[in-house]
Write a structure and sequence with these properties.
The chain is mainly α and 96 residues long. It folds into 2 domains: 59 residues, Arc Repressor Mutant, subunit A (Orthogonal Bundle); 32 residues. It is built from 6 helices and no strands. The longest helix has 16 residues.
């Protein structure tokens, strides 16, 4: 998957240099438009090779564990259902 994305990032940079609009690039590559914006911004700031290296290193790191355990999640979903999708402040109030 990472190699495919690295290839897509390279293609994205080449298509952008040719003046193709970002929305068309997203459509052609089958990626979200926001992803294309992030890739192009990284390529513009760092250059293609440096951005690809940063991308590879970012994908190698360990993922952080989830901070909320399953019991708290269940309580939150019960509150949301009971209170008709209330906001985060109300959920914090109900949990306390």
């Amino acid at each position: 998957m990472d190699m495919l994305n690295e290839t897509l990032i390279t293609l994205c940079g080449e298509l952008y240099e040719q003046g193709i609009p970002k929305s068309h690039i997203a459509e052609k590559l089958g990626k979200n438009r926001e992803t294309i914006h992030i890739w192009i911004k990284g390529i513009e700031e760092h250059g293609l090779l440096v951005y690809l290296e940063k991308y590879r290193r970012a994908k190698k790191g360990k993922r952080a564990k989830r901070k909320a355990n399953s019991l708290v999640k269940r309580w939150i979903w019960e509150i949301r259902e009971r209170e008709y999708n209330c906001c985060g402040q109300k959920i914090q109030y109900f949990l306390s």
